Amino acid sequence: MTLTAERVVELPPHQVYGMFGSGSGAGWLFDAHCAEVAVGAMVTLRVPLESGGGRPADIVGRISGLAAGRRIDITHHLPWRGRLRMRFDPRESGGTRVRVTAEIGSEALPWLMRRRGIPATGSVPEGAHPVGLLCSKSGPASVFAAATENLALLGAEQVNADGGVNGREMRVLVGDDATDPRTAAAETRRLIRAGCRAIITNVTSQSFNAISAVARRAGVLVIYTPVNEGGPAHDLVFRLGERPEGQLDAAVRRLMGATGGRHWYLAGNDYSWPRDSNVWARRVIARHGGAVVGETYRALGTDDFSSLIDDIAASGADLVLSTFVGADEVAFEQQCHAMGLRAQCRTLALALDEFTRSAIGDAASSGLWSVFGYFENLDNAANRALVDSYYREFGRWAPPPSSITESVYEALHLYTGAARAAGDDEPLTIARELRGRSFDGPRGTVAISGPNAYRQPLMVAEAGNGGFSLVAEVEPSRERDSARLRWS
């Protein structure tokens, strides 16, 4: 479907073109968020989809074509795949005709229907093996969703090429939690009604708690894949992902040694993962001779961090631990750079992945540290094959794979191995087979020894122009859940 709209602005084309991304208050289209107007730059546009003050939606994509003063093309992947084309044509009588063409993908209609409360379950072919995928296609955590969905679809394609699940086609059904636990619960119920006996998810821990409560009552298996704080184990709820203690053990001492800093300010979103991460942070920082001089939280969806940044600057901190996620982390780091905090403090960000770094922009992300089990530029055969397949399948403007999103790909392969070993679709049987399951994939060998026990390598990396550079490689200890550092 293609929609077209136009308006006349009484300014010359080069001035109208220059308003894009400037935050000038000229309307949703021109007030896009982007680090720079350049081909390849990440762009977010907050679109007023509903009249009467309804919730806006964030369109997230990349600038895929430019002609200075005349044209801007945006290829987007959230909340559906499509393309926006902006044309700036001079009028003979003066001013500029701005013409916008929106190409809307087929998945837009079901998303819009569910957003308005209209059932849109989706169909599963007879004899297929449905697996639910719950991610955040809207809300503050939406920066991770497109690559998550892409990697799940790529994984399912590989599974089906290898015979499917016990001879049945794997079909991935996607839900959007909107970064909201109530929506997460409703979407979980929808996926279960559609026939999913297993749900893979990489939402915030708030949404995960809502998902697991619904799934446990229904006897459905849940595999939670992103960095998380851990929690109570359950036969049908598996937590994979990095743990804060391992991340902090790997990175804190290294960053303190590299900078000479020892005074930390802890800043993050106000929910369980950041707060639990900072409990570990205080222990690890003290263990390595550092001190915490401040700790502050902001609600998910915050976009103005100026008072927090002033507080960090006044605290005497020379190091910051950020546990902001998604769009909040983007805004926080951009504002830290703009307000000059980077000259005083270096930052370790526990949820800084490739997409978030790209959305922050090269200038504002330069020098930030991250620690994950996977980075897109890992140099091994399995990862090179994955990255090549990914961009061949989804195009050069697809959002980059990252640990938060690639984790879904690995979880899907782990699940497939367990389901094949179980020989049936019974969630408890598959869950038993998941214990002790391992997978040799893009991040190396990963292994599940229980619902809340996951082993994987860790990498400490520093952000720079165009991506991350590896600082250190870390192997999980066999004796306990800490880490032994092996310098690269």
From TrEMBL:
Q: Which domain of life is it from?
A: Bacteria
Entry annotated with the keyword Cytoplasm: no
Question: Do the record's keywords include Disulfide bond?
Answer: no
Q: Which InterPro entries match?
A: Leu-bd (IPR028081), Peripla_BP_I (IPR028082), START-like_dom_sf (IPR023393)
Q: Which UniProt keywords apply?
A: Signal
Q: Which residues form the signal peptide?
A: none
Q: Where is the Leucine-binding protein domain?
A: 131-452
Q: What family does the Swiss-Prot or TrEMBL record give for this protein? A: Belongs to the leucine-binding protein family.
Q: What is this protein called?
A: ABC transporter substrate-binding protein
According to its UniProt entry, this protein's organism is Marinitenerispora sediminis
